Amino acid sequence: KGPVGILSRFIRFRVPELLIQTDGICTGGRLSKYLRISLDYLINRNHPVILILYLVLLVGSETLFIYTSWSNLPTIHQAFALCSSLTPIFFTYKAVLSSSSTITPRNHRQKMHSYPYDHVLYQPGRICRTCNFLKPARSKHCSVCNVCVAKHDHHCVWIMNCIGQDNVSHFLCMLLSLSLVLTYGAYLSYSLLSKQLQQRASGQLDGEPRNEHWSTGLSWSRYAALWSWALAQDFRIGGIGLLALLTAPLAWTMFLYHIYLVWAGTTTNESSKWSEWKEYIEEGLVYKWVGTSNGVFAESRDLETEPPVDWPVHSPQRLFRSEDGQPPVTLTDAGGIAASWQPVRGLYEIENLYDLGFWDNLKDVFWPM
């Protein structure tokens, strides 16, 4: 009801309405139509636009930086700059062209034996209505690629592909190499510009020769002014170095987030599923079955929909989400042993079947079982 709310509603609702009305008067609504089509293409279609922009920016910046700074780089940095600049391009190429994570009728049986169903995030017997086959554990149908992907993590617009079981290793290496090359580029840019400032300082900084570091004893305003001068003197090295400095934290954040997912034994897709379970638990709607692996549910296992998997960890846990907060009806096995349902108080009480420990999780990323 305040001025901020009024301004927010005006920007979110009234401005678009005015633009649509103006377009209707000027072009008969054609501009709005083309804009909607363009947005639908960019958001909901698998297209190369962002991949092309990413590669143009990456390759163009690397090429321009190396060409400009080549004569000023020591031999060791010349060699390292060439190698490090090619590494993210190579792993991007590998991640883009990898399609072995896509589930097809030919590899469906193999993917069904990759991971066991945990009966928490993934239930056996579920059929993908689009692909028309049983959904393997940890898989997901991507609406953008229109295929089912094994161990689906997320659809990445930067590489125009889904991150899944067989290319997540390329994706991690791409993020790591990109983070390193951005950090290295920022360091080289700083070193080259600082060298110019040192040469200027040794001759005539404040009218007096200086042998110590050029920034010694300078005020913050003078320090900033000298950096502005250095950036203006060589805007190609300075501009690319500044771009690398600003984007390196984003690349490192993405890389460290995916390393955290590896540590937790989960994926981006599964983390959202765990968040949903957390909400149900907080509402008091989740119950856990405590029993043995040869109990009630083991007897009803269908080997066609839930084939045996050679996985180092097994868990007999079953979760039940209640609609009214009441536990399910108690079941008994052939021996008359009742299944015991207990309320779940937090995610810490639920076992993540896919978490084998960091090193085994990492091994599964690079060498899937």
Describe this structure in words.
The chain has 369 residues and is mainly alpha-helical. Helices cover 53% and strands 7% of the residues. It has helices at 3-26, 30-44, 49-69, 75-97, 108-112, 168-204, 220-233, 235-264, 268-282, 296-299, 358-366; strands at residues 140-142, 147-149, 154-156, 161-163, 286-290, 318-321, 340-343. The strands form three sheets. It has a three-stranded antiparallel β-sheet with strand order 6-5-7. A two-stranded antiparallel sheet has the order 1-2. Strands 3-4 form a two-stranded antiparallel sheet. β3 and β4 (161-163) form a beta hairpin. The longest helix has 37 residues, at 168-204.
Keywords:
369 residues; three-stranded antiparallel β-sheet; 11 helices; 7 strands
